[in-house]
Design goal:
351 residues; alpha+beta; D-amino Acid Aminotransferase, Chain A, domain 1; D-amino Acid Aminotransferase, Chain A, domain 2; nine-stranded mixed sheet; 20 strands; 27% strand; Aminotransferase-like; Aminotrans_IV; BCAT-like_C
Length: 351
């Protein structure tokens, strides 16, 4: 039996424990009791995702106990949103396009004025070792750089030490979990991010979250951001691409778009469709909403969906409302690319 003490015993006169003239029972926990509570919480809250391993520079190592996968409340990433992150897919024991994601991660940290305590190669080694410790072959590696803990002030002071965190999440393989029939999207009413913040992959995801909730409430898969000039930007966590009437693969350009690693890879892979004549070209350009809705095909590109066909935007069906052949071909190319484990895109984890 836990030896938790009732706060009423020690603070009977405390007005903070009285609400509407009713006494509130609050437990004062020891460290070991709090850990037991965390363990019990994790056991009860198991969902589809399993957290297999976590690295934290705070304790300078890796844990495989989900109850210990925590960060300090006074970390500036928690209470000020001063942190950046990135995600790499684990496919058949390989980290897909890992170095591309890691480079973007470090660019985001620099733009957010977070100077890592480790150099790039050390961070890379830590992340690979975390995956190795997890023994995960199919899942996700997610990692963060934070301004670090130390206080609850607005700006981190000179004594703050930036923190590195990483977690390995076991997920069903993306190779077999893509929407085959296409999805619906809506035009998001949530204001688009300013260029300075749109191009940093930071933890400030409230606009993204609200856009996704809005889509969910509308029975759609995602919201699409449109800028003040009427040009298509991106989804809440994905890039957007189209196949034009001229059979070109087109992706919106602009300063309000985060350059997606998956999108860049898809554009490169799409070059073989140009060579075999299925596409006439590939380019980045401004795309109006009208042009997007009148395209032959529309798709979402991202590490969480790979290449996801869009068959309806608001009340407008894209072309005939069916999944297009180019979208399907690009998805097949990405899947083949991931399974190939080529040295240029696949970083092996030596378990």
């Amino acid at each position: 039996m836990m030896a938790a003490r009732n706060l009423q015993q020690g603070f009977k006169q405390s007005p903070d424990l009285v609400c509407n003239n009713e006494k509130t029972d609050i437990l004062l926990l020891s460290y070991s009791e709090a850990i037991e509570k965390l363990k019990a919480f994790r056991e009860k809250s198991k969902g589809k995702q399993q957290y297999l391993a976590m690295y934290s520079s705070i304790f300078g190592g890796i844990t495989t106990d989900p109850a210990a996968m925590v960060i300090p409340m006074d970390d500036h990433m928690v209470h000020r949103g001063h942190g950046v992150f990135d995600t790499t897919t684990i496919i058949e024991g390989y980290l897909y396009d890992f170095d591309e994601h890691l480079d973007r991660f470090l660019r985001s940290a620099s733009m957010a004025k977070i100077n890592p305590s480790f150099d790039r190669e050390t961070i890379r080694r830590i992340l690979i070792q975390t995956v190795k410790a997890s023994n995960c072959r199919e899942g996700t590696l997610r990692y963060w750089l934070s301004a670090g803990p130390g206080d609850f002030e607005l700006s981190p002071s000179s004594f703050h030490q930036p923190s590195l965190y990483a977690i390995v999440i076991q997920n069903p393989s993306l190779l077999h979990n893509n929407p085959n029939n296409g999805v619906k999207v809506i035009t998001s009413s949530v204001p688009i991010k300013a260029p300075q913040f749109a191009t940093i992959k930071s933890v400030n995801y409230l606009p993204n979250v609200l856009s996704k909730i809005e889509a969910d409430e509308s029975g759609a898969f995602a919201g699409i951001w449109v800028d003040e000039d009427g040009f298509v930007a991106e989804g809440a966590s994905m890039n957007v691409a189209f196949v034009s009437k001229e059979r070109e693969l087109v992706m919106p350009r602009g300063k309000k778009i985060l350059c997606g690693c998956t999108a860049k890879r898809v554009l490169r892979l799409g070059e073989c469709l140009v060579r075999d004549g299925r596409l006439k070209g590939i380019r980045l350009k401004d795309v109006s909403v009208k042009e997007g809705k009148e395209s032959q095909e529309m798709m979402l590109l991202g590490s969480g969906v790979l290449v996801c066909p869009v068959v309806q935007w608001d009340d407008h069906f894209i072309a005939n409302g069916n999944v297009g052949s180019i979208t399907q071909a690009l998805l097949n190319l990405v899947i083949e690319d991931m399974k190939s484990a080529l040295p240029s895109v696949g970083t092996p984890v030596h378990y």
